[in-house]
Design brief:
heterodimer, A: mainly alpha, Four Helix Bundle (Hemerythrin (Met), subunit A), 10 helices, B: about 290 residues, mainly alpha, Cytochrome Bc1 Complex, Chain D, domain 2, 2 domains, two-stranded antiparallel sheet, 5 strands, globular
Chain lengths: ~210, ~290
């Protein structure tokens, strides 16, 4: 009882001593702290699993900002492309791969165990992410260009060579210089395809 | 023990019904058109997943020469070689045999196909689309190598038992569009319910692997090993989770979800090898239909 009165008095005194702006600041910081806690969004992930889920979250934010640009939802902003490309580049290659130590599939991880049976492929995709994001940075000043103008008025008609092996198997590897000279939306497509290739093989979540 | 007996009884029923069904083969399909358009067929081969499923690209396999292993609770399926090779592919087939495979789910020698080949959707393709697909398949370079045989557990390895499966679960009626004067809805319906066969993964299946139509698009645990769960794509669920027509259409084109995440699992493959090649108006029609489905 005595303790309760003490606590109530302390709380009341503390609140009345704080100015209104300070109070708002405290509430804002507390909320921000909770909202920015990735563990809340990751169903209690801990350790290395949490670390890599946080990394993927940062990639997700960067990809979202790029997708917003390339969907045509806003005016093209080369600086915004460079900033997002830098974030992606910084979270690629070994920075990403080192967060996947063998066997780390603890809940709530969605990583598939085949990562470690195909480690070279996995690491190669992480490296390619770095190469393509560097390419996107360099290509940021190249305006987006629509690829399929030849299809514009033909409902359901693809390029004639759609079934050739070269079309089906994808183009040969691009270099950083290739990416730097491409329209930036096409480099972004390469980046998305790379994420997709990795997720389709190594992530369980659809 | 009871389960074992039940399985044996089931196998007996399947065997007897299956044997009887072997003598009652479905009539071969005759299309109203025989001339196909290679380009439209190639587009359909992408959109309908032929290329995604029948090409093991990540393992360095050739186009349509046979797919990667599909590991399911029934065993492992391997999509066969669909190249023009006379012996190992479908080079010796006729258009009629091709149409019969799609419409009736039976091979040229009358064997029923496993429903891992989604013929219950392809049976709804128009005559022209079937002819177009056939024309496109004629242009595929031959690969002289057979895909591995399916490796299934008992009793699912008894292929003739599929006759009973087909008679119970395979609806061979023609595609009938819902009454709609809205061309975008009608196009979306045809694509979703036939070409892109979304329900094959997004609708739960019963113990025998047949779709539970009363739970259309309700989402499901994936039948593919290690795939996790497949999300619901009912109109209500899509709206509740914040998808717009533009989001959905863009996700099918790019693989990127509205929150910046990129599809994983088999959906990543569906986009990368299929829907990414589709025309914007078709993707918009798919999204429109899914969000407004009656």
């Amino acid at each position: 009882m005595y303790n309760n009165i003490l606590t109530k008095n302390f709380t009341a005194v503390t609140i009345t001593r704080l100015s209104l702006p300070t109070l708002f600041l405290v509430i804002f910081c507390t909320l921000a702290l909770f909202i920015s806690q990735p563990s809340l969004a990751h169903n209690g992930a801990t350790g290395i699993v949490k670390e890599r889920m946080d990394l993927m979250d940062r990639l997700k934010v960067a990809m979202k900002s790029l997708a917003t640009i390339y969907r045509g939802g806003q005016v093209y902003d080369a600086q915004q492309v460079r900033e997002a490309a830098t974030i992606i580049e910084q979270h690629s290659a070994n920075t990403m791969a080192r967060l996947f130590p063998e066997g780390s599939v603890q809940h709530p991880s969605t990583a598939k165990a085949n990562i470690w049976r195909n480690w070279d492929d996995f690491a190669n995709l992480a490296d390619r992410q770095q190469l393509i994001s560097q390419g996107l940075f360099s290509a940021a000043d190249n305006p987006p260009q629509q690829q399929n103008s030849q299809l514009s008025n033909m409902m359901g008609t693809p390029p004639p060579s759609m079934l050739s092996n070269s079309q089906l198997m994808g183009a040969s590897e691009n270099t950083a210089e290739d990416y730097a000279s491409m329209p930036s939306n096409q480099v972004f497509k390469k980046l998305t395809d790379n994420c997709s290739s990795c997720h389709s093989r190594f992530r369980a979540k659809n | 023990m009871r389960i074992k007996h039940a399985l044996l009884v089931l196998a007996l029923i399947i065997t007897s019904w299956g044997s009887w069904s072997l003598f009652t083969k479905s009539a071969p399909v005759t299309l109203n058109v025989t001339q196909g358009d290679v380009n439209r067929g190639a587009y359909l081969a992408r959109a309908s997943g032929c290329i995604a499923c029948h090409s093991a690209t990540s393992a360095g396999g050739r186009a349509l020469a046979g797919g990667a292993a599909l590991e399911t609770p029934f065993g492992t399926f391997y999509a066969p070689n669909l190249t023009t090779d006379q012996e190992h592919g479908i080079g010796a087939w006729t258009l009629q045999q091709f149409a019969t495979a799609l419409r009736h789910g039976t091979s040229p020698d009358g064997q029923p196909y496993y429903p891992a080949f989604p013929y219950s959707f392809y049976s709804k393709l128009t005559d022209q689309d079937v002819a177009d697909l056939w024309a496109a398949f004629q242009t595929v370079p031959a690969v002289a190598k057979s895909a591995p045989e399916h490796n299934l557990s008992f009793p699912f390895n008894l292929r003739f038992g599929l006759n009973i499966w087909q008679s119970l679960f395979f609806d061979q009626t023609e595609f009938t569009a819902a009454e709609s004067t809205d061309p975008q809805y009608a196009r979306g319906e045809y694509l979703v319910e036939s070409v892109t066969h979304c329900a094959a993964c997004h609708t739960p299946r019963n113990l025998f692997g047949a779709l539970q139509h009363q739970q259309q698009f309700a989402g499901s645990a994936s039948l593919l090993q290690g795939e996790g769960s497949i999300p619901a794509i009912t109109a209500d669920h899509l709206k509740q989770t914040g998808w717009s027509q533009s989001d959905l259409s863009y996700a099918l084109q790019s693989g990127i979800k509205p929150d910046g995440d990129v599809f994983g699992g088999s959906m990543a493959e569906v986009v990368k090898d299929g829907t990414a090649y589709m025309q914007k108006q078709d993707l918009q029609a798919i999204a429109y239909y899914l969000l407004n489905r009656k």
